[in-house]
Write a structure and sequence with these properties.
globular, 300 residues, 14 strands, alpha+beta
Length: 300
């Protein structure tokens, strides 16, 4: 099926262009995916992060395993292929990844861990620190637009994410070795409020449509793909959809290594995730919700 994910100018959305806003609202209610252009993210910064990412994954396993995420619930450092498993699945995803968070100080919740430093790639942290800052700014602006689409104050989510537990994930999908398993990342939903994905033009990302078909996501090279996560679905009483998506190898194409960098925008651990619309909802702490989901995907 052709790409039904709308690609919108973020400048036009923020200016209040009615056509763009209506397309955004339709995407949010239908399948929870859209992509944005004219967002201000530096292409040089993105390219530098991809270079650093590839340099890390090119290291031998023994070196990468020095930075194992074991003991941090997968929150920081390296997770090898064969660990993360989509909810309800028995076969693990075919990917390895690195997790990087904010530069923390005493004003952050103590449950948010420090980043690890890769000694073999001295520029890695600087590139990813800068990318984290930029995507956090863009993500906060996207949340403001989403808040306006819900007819609530545009700053509603600011206090949730200002010192949030957000996460940059650098992913390497090795070439698929067998046609018996073409799923690089099996069908799943994201845990967080919203996800911003850079580098999605490599292909393979698909979104489940309402009719049960899979939509191939093929944005332009400078677009950021955005999608709704489970936390946002929860606090909007499912008015906004956390949509099932996957990464799959086209069986008719040559299998090559694939790289991507998603940014998962999370609230602070102490935020109570309760309905935006219902005062009587007791909610659940963001940290408890996250722990529950990490256990389900085998990262706990």
């Amino acid at each position: 099926m052709s790409n039904l994910i709308p690609e919108l100018s973020f400048k036009e959305i923020e200016k209040g262009d009615l056509t763009s806003i209506n397309l955004l609202k339709e995407a949010l209610s239908n399948h929870g995916f859209f992509s944005i252009t004219e967002h201000g993210l530096s292409k040089d910064l993105v390219n530098n992060c991809y270079k650093s990412s590839k340099a890390f994954f090119d290291l031998n396993y023994e070196t990468k395993s020095i930075y194992s995420s074991v003991g941090s619930k997968g929150a920081r450092g390296y997770t090898p292929k064969g660990i993360e498993t989509a909810v309800g699945e028995k076969i693990a995803d075919q990917k390895e990844f690195w997790h990087h968070g904010p530069i923390i100080d005493d004003t952050y919740d103590k449950k948010i861990p420090k980043n690890l430093t890769i000694e073999q790639i001295p520029e890695f942290n600087n590139h990813f620190d800068n990318l984290y800052k930029e995507l956090h700014k863009i993500g906060s602006r996207v949340l403001s637009v989403i808040a306006m689409s819900l007819d609530i104050d545009k700053n509603y989510f600011d206090s949730w994410v200002q010192k949030g537990n957000s996460l940059l994930r650098s992913i390497h999908y090795p070439p698929v070795e067998s046609k018996s398993n073409l799923h690089r990342a099996r069908a799943h939903e994201d845990i967080n409020l919203i996800t911003l994905l850079i580098g999605a033009e490599e292909g393979g990302l698909e979104v489940l449509n309402k009719d049960g078909s899979w939509i191939k996501v093929a944005p332009s090279s400078d677009a950021i793909v955005c999608n709704i996560g489970d936390m946002m679905q929860l606090v909007t009483d499912k008015k906004l959809k956390s949509t099932t998506h996957r990464v799959i190898q086209d069986e008719m194409a040559e299998s090559k290594a694939r790289y991507s960098i998603p940014f998962f925008l999370h609230p602070a651990p102490s935020i109570n995730l309760k309905s935006i619309f219902r005062e009587d909802d007791e909610g659940i702490l963001a940290d408890d919700f996250l722990d529950q989901r990490l256990k389900e995907i085998k990262l706990y």
